[in-house]
Write a structure and sequence with these properties.
Helices cover 29% and strands 22% of the residues. The chain contains ten helices and 14 strands.
Length: 334
C-alpha cells in the first residue's frame, strides 16, 4: 500500500540574507543562512513542532512556507504543487488553504473592527467562500473556539489575551484552511491560558483534520501538540523524528541542552544537567564543520573538519551529530 502524499513538502530549502556593509565603493558580502538545506514534511491532519533558540531560523522558515519571502534555493510543495512560481488565481487559492495564527493577540487584530467583521474578513477577499448565512457561520466559529456568539459585536479591546487569540484562530478557520502556521502562538499568554489554547487547537484538529506547523522556543509546549518534532540550530535541522522519541531519547547535545532547560517538578537543584557554555556563534561567520561544536561538551577534532549530515539513527529518528548518544552525567562516566 503506497504512502499518502504529504500535504507540505520542504525540499533542500535555503534562505540567505546579505548583511555585509559598504566600505567606500565596495560592498563586503556577509551572508547569514537562515535556512540551510531544510527538508521536512507534514501530513494532513498532523502537527510538526519546530523548536530552537531565538535566531535559529524558525520564523524565516514560517515566512517561506507562507510565501511571504522567496527562498534562495530548494523547493516547497503544497498538495504536490510547487508554490515558488505561483501567481494569480493559484497563489490566491494557496493563501486560502494556508493560514497563520500570530504570536501577538493584541497587535494582530484591527482594534476598529468588531469580532464579526474580523472573522468574516476572509470572505471579502475570497467571496466564493462566503457562506449563505455569514452571521450564522460567525456564530458557529465563535462557538467552535469557545467564545459566546453574542459577543460578535464587541471589539478586541474588550477581550483578554486568550480570548483575542481565540478570535484569531476563528478568523483563520473561516476560509477552511488545510494548514495553520502557528508562530509562537501561545508564548504571549499566561501558562493557564496557554493550556486552554493548546487543548483548543487539538480539538479543532480532531474536528476538521487541519494540519499545524507549530513553532515555539518552549519545548514543553511543543510536546503537548506535536506528532513530529524538528530541532533547528542556525538554520539547520539537527534532530528530527517522532515527538516521543525525540523527547525521551534525544541524542544530539543541543537538543539535550534545550530539554534540560525545561523546568521539572521534583527535580533537584543540584542535579547535573547538560548546559551550554559560552555564547551562540556569529551566524555571519559560523564555525567550520559542526556549527554547534564551540558549545558542545562532546566536541572532537572531527567536528571542526566535517559538517555532520542529518542521518537516520532509528525507524523515526534523524540527527546531525558525529557522536550522538544519551546524556551521561560526569559522575557516571568511568
Amino acid at each position: 500500500m503506497s504512502k499518502p502524499q504529504p500535504l507540505l513538502e520542504i525540499d533542500g530549502l535555503y534562505k540567505s540574507f546579505d548583511v555585509g556593509k559598504r566600505r567606500g565603493f565596495r560592498r563586503e558580502e556577509r551572508l547569514i543562512h537562515a535556512a540551510n538545506d531544510v527538508n521536512l514534511t507534514i501530513a494532513a491532519g498532523t502537527t510538526l513542532g519546530l523548536v530552537g533558540e531565538s535566531g535559529s531560523g524558525k520564523s524565516t522558515l514560517a515566512r517561506l512556507v507562507l510565501k511571504l519571502a522567496d527562498p534562495s534555493g530548494g523547493d516547497i510543495r503544497f498538495d504536490g504543487e510547487s508554490i515558488l512560481g505561483m501567481k494569480g488565481a493559484a497563489l490566491k487559492r494557496f493563501r486560502q488553504q494556508v493560514q497563520m495564527v500570530f504570536q501577538d493577540p493584541y497587535g494582530s487584530l484591527n482594534p476598529r473592527m468588531n469580532v464579526e467583521k474580523l472573522i468574516s474578513e476572509g470572505w471579502v477577499v475570497n467571496p466564493e467562500l462566503r457562506p449563505a448565512s455569514p452571521k450564522q457561520r460567525v456564530a458557529e466559529l465563535m462557538e467552535q473556539v469557545g467564545l459566546r456568539p453574542e459577543w460578535s459585536n464587541r471589539y478586541p479591546g474588550q477581550f483578554s489575551g486568550g480570548q483575542r487569540q481565540r478570535i484569531g484562530i476563528a478568523r483563520a478557520l473561516a476560509v477552511n484552511p488545510k494548514l495553520l502556521v502557528c508562530d509562537e502562538a501561545v508564548s504571549a499568554l499566561d501558562v493557564s491560558v496557554q493550556a486552554q489554547i493548546l487543548k483548543l487547537l487539538k480539538e479543532i484538529q480532531q474536528e476538521t483534520g487541519v494540519a499545524y506547523l507549530f513553532i515555539s522556543h518552549d519545548l514543553s509546549v511543543v510536546r503537548h501538540v506535536s506528532d513530529q518534532v524538528a530541532v533547528m540550530h542556525l538554520g539547520r535541522i539537527i534532530e528530527h523524528g517522532d515527538a516521543n522519541e525525540v523527547y525521551d531519547n534525544a541524542v544530539h547535545p543541543y537538543t539535550q541542552a534545550l530539554l534540560s532547560a525545561v523546568p521539572r517538578f521534583g527535580s533537584s537543584a543540584m542535579e547535573e544537567k547538560p548546559r551550554l557554555a559560552g555564547e551562540p556563534p556569529d551566524p555571519g561567520n559560523p564555525p567550520s564543520g559542526c556549527m554547534f561544536r564551540t558549545r558542545c561538551w562532546r566536541a572532537k577534532p572531527k567536528c571542526a573538519e566535517k559538517k555532520p549530515a542529518l542521518e537516520r539513527r532509528g525507524e523515526s529518528h534523524l540527527n546531525a551529530c558525529h557522536f550522538p548518544g544519551p546524556w551521561i552525567p560526569a559522575a557516571n562516566v568511568s
